[in-house]
């Protein structure tokens, strides 16, 4: 099997760079005329799968919006991941897991193993120390999966920690990017990505990452093509992945409307793959 990084690169060249979210936010479910229960959740997910499956490089279910429905919600998430992956669409589980030792290993097994929730990649938090991610990084490498490490997030609170200078003068966010880059050393496009908010005023130095850069905050939160141009070096454009959720899902529940909006977004960010 080829690495996640290689599969992602190929998919982005084929479909475009945009990552689409499956975020069954209660407000969106109401706007779609769906009940806020497991049946409504399933319908929401099925519409998203119909619109996105086989048409985008990466689909990102937001795990948090499935969890409030308990076992029924997790079952919907399992089916959503399974259907997408079975057809070859790459799935990034936006779970933001982070812990130590055997607990981190259990999270890794859940999201990166051959388990019901097993995905092509998962988001993780390194703020218990980058080394705490080793169980996920090791399993991802063994199973040809990917990991996206939170580095420089766009929420205002993030700067309180991420912009602190370490003893060597680098910000904590830059340290996380550099640690990810070290895991991507060697030939080929790496499978350890970072998460960098598209609405930041400035980003860490991404030039040596050699891996994917997931950029949430596009659309409703204010990020766009200009902000990505400002944050990512031109030499790294092909690694940038604008992540869009509310801006896209807001045109649902029509599958045709979702597909049309998705095509518009892919065209807006087509410069990243040229």
UniProtKB/TrEMBL annotation:
InterPro entries: Aldolase_TIM (IPR013785), OMPdecase_AS (IPR018089), OMPdecase_type-2 (IPR011995), OMPdeCOase_dom (IPR001754), RibuloseP-bd_barrel (IPR011060)
CDD domains tied to this protein: OMP_decarboxylase_like
UniProt KW Lyase keyword: yes
Pfam families: OMPdecase
GO MF entries: orotidine-5'-phosphate decarboxylase activity
Top EC category: lyase
E.C. no: 4.1.1.23
SUPFAM superfamilies, sorted: Ribulose-phoshate binding barrel
Pathway: Pyrimidine metabolism; UMP biosynthesis via de novo pathway; UMP from orotate: step 2/2
Reaction(s) this enzyme catalyzes, per UniProt: orotidine 5'-phosphate + H(+) = UMP + CO2
Domain of life of the source: Bacteria
Keyword set includes Heme: no
One GO BP: 'de novo' UMP biosynthetic process
HAMAP family in the record: OMPdecase_type2
Similarity comment: family membership: Belongs to the OMP decarboxylase family. Type 2 subfamily.
The protein's name in its UniProt record: Orotidine 5'-phosphate decarboxylase
Organism: Nocardia mangyaensis
